[in-house]
Amino acid sequence: MADADDEFLTGVGEVVEDPGDGPIYRPAPGELQLTARAVAIGCCMGVVISAMNMYFGLKTGWGIGGSLIAAILSFAIFSALKPRKAFTPLETNIAQTAGSAAGTMTMAAGLVAAIPAVQLMDDAPQLGYVELTLWALSIAYIGVFFAVPLRRQMVIEEKLRFPTGTATANTIVAMFGSGAETVRKARALVLWAIVAGVFTVCFYFVPHLHEPPLGKWVQDATGWAGVATAAGYTFSLYVSPLLIGAGILVGMRVSVSLAAGAVVAWAILVPIVEKYEWVSPARMSYGTGARGWILWPGVAIMVFDALTALALSWKSIVRTFTRTKVSADGGGEDPHRSIPKAWWLGGLAAATVLTSFTAWYFFDIPPWMTVLAVLLSSVLAVIAVRSTGETDINPVSGVGKVTQLVYGAVAPKQVGTNLLTAGITGAGASQAADMMQDLKTGHLLGASPRKQFVAQLFGIAAGILICVPIYLLMTEAYDFGSKEMPAPSAFAWKAMADVLAQGLDALPMHAPWAVLVGALFGILVPVLRLKAPAVRPYLPSGLAFGVAFIIPAFYSFTFLIGAIVYAIWKARGRGSAEALGFAVASGLIAGEGLMGIINAVLTLLEVKPLVTLH
Known about the structure:
The chain is mainly alpha-helical.
């Protein structure tokens, strides 16, 4: 796989002084780039990130980007191995490109939202390995092909920042300038991954490590039943390295928003709806209990926050359709480096045909509806790319909701069609933005877009191979909505589809009023964030606030613990916290995410824990 021009390796290039908006690195003549070892290590890192994202996504509804993790670990591995031909910055770029492509496959294939939402349907189709692999293979590449012709406009002409892509490029350059610091970060990541992994396996056998019975202990010691009562409303201690790491990553604002949403949902609304008997006593039932009731205002907040934020980005949307030019010539670059027009057009045509066939054969979706979804995806993916370039926020949730609204009119009362077509546009947005982040990194490093494109294709294939089996394993071991697998995104997507299909009849008693209030709240927060800068620091994250209505309260407060721990760490040792925070958080998430899969295997094998919860 090594490049033909890589035979005359002359070493590592040089950093560009005062680059302005241009590349920050000048490669050496013949510098190694698209090599088998770079693609292989990138795919391996991506497989780990994909597995981590599966566990993380089904627990929280979020995913973790893989670019920085793949770049740091691939560099550290080759630094330790010390191969005869030194690993280069351009090879590191190829590794992070393949790694991020594989790592995002969990989200792009719809395995934390659209697919589990379909499986929540009463007449859900049977989805096995073949069906899910074909579906993932069909939709995964669409966004990549959409991204190619946008590169010239977004990256070269407009020079959009793409913060994650820019950070990754600067990290790669810094690593080769100060390898010791990178090795330090990699060691921290691996160390905390091992700690979290060991703890995760241990809590399978001793569940009290994961869920200390604090309420029972306090009641036994003091006779006060208040803590035990709170635990009944899901306010309990929950020790999870993954959620603590997530709290470090998302920061105090999002974590506080989650905690505030949990208080409103579980401490205020749930007691009210139970007191007035609007629900059955089965509190944790999504069908008739209080948990099913608070789902609706939570979803309303999430949906209207996403749609309002998208609408308020109208200037970006206008720029998208007034300034974006479709180009395949690489923006005047060396034609041997640019991505040939035949590659992305042919790939897009093939992906559309395969998606149409898969959707028709397995899900009875007429081909014209799939083609319409692909066309809609082409528009929404461009919006997602620009949003990511300007803000580093990929509005996959808003993109999906737009599609659900469109298909609520095009295919009324067809819940499965509504969910899966939204999955197509969500995949397009996810992969197009991920590809453009990588192309931004490559542009800043003077890399070949064509070689990055090839690495992206390999990474996606690697991600598909691992994410589908892990999804099947997780769904075989745990039920959607369980403590182990709350699947908040799936329930949110399913709820939206139900309302569009059934109207207000889908809502439980008096829930329409809660939906109205939630919708108003979801609209108000992004409007105030834009129009009232003075109050912006005090506004919650609407998405996080709404998510807290869908997951148990102890999840939200474990996020907050992570954010508080990181805040204390920064206050006491700011330098080390900022240098190692990302690595420690990623290690905690990766450790529990990967060993959580082992726990699922133990569950399927019916291995008994040493201690049982009472």
